[in-house]
Specification:
6-stranded mixed sheet; Helix Hairpins; disordered C terminus; alpha+beta; 15% strand
Length: 478
């Protein structure tokens, strides 16, 4: 039930409960201190009266008459049977002590009260019963216990007035504190409500909306607003990338699908010879293989991040050396490599191998020899570079080189899907690394994760990978 109430109401309820406990504790402390002071004065007067009365009875002297007693002072002389032998006027008939109190008073002094503070008693008394001769067995009809009594009216009235004043003061303090707390809670939660309403606008479809965050404040709510703005920016960026990806993928898939559909329609318009049908099927199979390759590449672009210590350790030195050797053997291209030994990262060996293969394919397809691969450890990071001496990329195209389906004008006549560098960037990012593209003195970083300076090639294109290292290494030439 309490969980359905607004947060500020729950805060005020908790604050009011805490304040009630504090005020009650403070009120109880004040009450007990005042009660102690009043009782101490009352007990001092009662002790003096009781001592005087007991001394007179023991000396068998004359007892004080009612008229000679102080205002509000009374006495009784009791025997062992709790019968009144003598008493001052103004007391009710019968003993002031109960049988149990009398039995204790025969052995040692007893102090007791008659009447209650609340509800109000008509004759409240404080009693002090003292044995006449402690330890002795009094004879029947002989004084056994003296009872001195004083009225508590003034003491009880003072305590009742104190209770009323404390109650009114505490209620007023609680009301004022609750009101102030409510206003403070409402003021503190006002930015949260504003964030909620703006988030509702965003959920309803509003775009380019950001939360209004004070620039000079740095409290918890302000930091929450900044974090939410960063999250909104990241979500919009991801949404834009996905929207572009869907549009580009639709465009790229439409062309081979249209060609495949056209070839099949033309083959069905009139009777064809076996040779013509075989040629049509072979062409359709090639288009289908292209579609499968394109779909596989699109799935690889959506690679998930590698999770730290749970990923297996990959010997990048061995991986690079093996890939470069096989590439030289299968393609006959002159690829020179300088790879330090002992370079290890945590991640996916297959994905990292595909990164290197794609970079070598791009260097061979769009660049010119010599093609060089270098890998080493720099400031705790593994730096892998692939360089070629080709014509390079135009400065206008460089920031878009790693975008999906993006191809330079000079590359549109060559085979490819425009997903090579996009796949490389996705795999490197999944390994918590950074991709850099430098061409003819122009540099582009797909991320600003690390502070290492960029390479400065004067010709050709240099692709740089920066990956977190798990071990030191020594330089070795391959």
């Amino acid at each position: 039930m309490l969980g359905r109430l607004p947060l500020r109401i729950r805060l005020i309820a908790g604050f009011a409960a805490a304040m009630l406990l504090v005020l009650s504790g403070a009120g109880a402390f004040v009450y007990l201190r005042v009660q102690y002071a009043l009782d101490l004065r009352l007990d001092q007067d009662l002790a003096a009266q009781s001592a005087q009365l007991t001394d007179l009875v023991r000396a068998r002297g004359p007892l004080p008459a009612a008229g000679r007693a102080g205002p509000g002072e009374y006495y009784q002389i009791l025997d062992a049977g709790n019968h009144v032998l003598s008493a001052s006027s103004g007391l009710p008939a019968g003993s002031l002590l109960t049988p149990e109190q009398l039995q204790r008073a025969l052995r040692h002094p007893v102090r007791a009260d008659r009447g209650t503070l609340l509800p109000i008693s008509t004759r409240p008394l404080r009693l002090s019963a003292v044995p006449v001769r402690p330890g002795a067995t009094p004879a029947a009809g002989q004084p056994a216990v003296t009872v001195a009594a004083v009225r508590r009216d003034q003491r009880d009235e003072a305590l009742r007035e104190l209770i009323g004043q404390l109650t009114l003061a505490n209620l007023a303090a609680l009301a004022i504190a609750s009101l102030v707390g409510y206003r403070l809670a409402r003021a503190a939660l006002a930015p949260v409500e504003r964030y909620r309403s703006e988030a509702a606008r965003i959920a309803a479809g509003a775009t380019d909306v950001r939360l209004a965050v004070p620039e000079r404040s740095d409290d918890e709510v302000t930091r929450l607003g900044r974090t939410l703005n960063d999250m909104l920016a990241a979500l919009e960026s991801a949404l834009d990338r996905e929207r572009r990806f869907i549009n580009d993928a639709s465009h790229e898939l439409r062309t081979p699908l249209t060609l495949l559909s056209t070839e099949l329609e033309l083959a069905l318009r009139r009777p064809r010879s076996a040779t013509e049908l075989e040629q049509t099927l072979r062409s359709a199979a090639a288009d289908t293989a292209h579609l499968i390759s394109l779909a596989d590449t699109l799935l690889d672009v959506g690679v998930q991040p590698v999770h730290g210590d749970t990923a297996p350790e990959v010997d990048l030195s061995e991986l690079l050396t093996g890939l470069v050797g096989r590439y030289r053997a299968t393609t006959g291209e002159a690829v020179h490599a300088t790879v330090a030994v002992g370079l290890t990262v945590r991640g996916d060996a297959t994905g990292l191998g595909r990164v290197v293969t794609n970079l070598l394919d791009n260097a061979v397809r769009y660049g010119a020899p010599p093609i060089t691969v270098a890998a080493g450890l720099v400031d705790g990071l593994i730096r892998v570079t692939v360089h070629d001496d080709g014509p390079g990329m135009s400065p206008q195209f460089l920031p878009h080189a790693a975008e999906r389906f993006c191809r330079a004008d000079t590359a549109r006549t060559t085979p490819g899907t425009g997903l090579g560098l996009s796949l490389v960037e996705a795999i490197v990012r999944a390994h918590h690394g950074e991709l850099r593209i430098c061409s003819a003195g122009v540099h582009h970083r797909t991320d600003s994760r690390f502070d290492l300076p960029c390479d400065h090639p004067t010709t050709g294109t240099t692709i740089t990978l920066l990956l977190p290292s798990t071990a030191d290494s020594r330089s070795e030439r391959a």
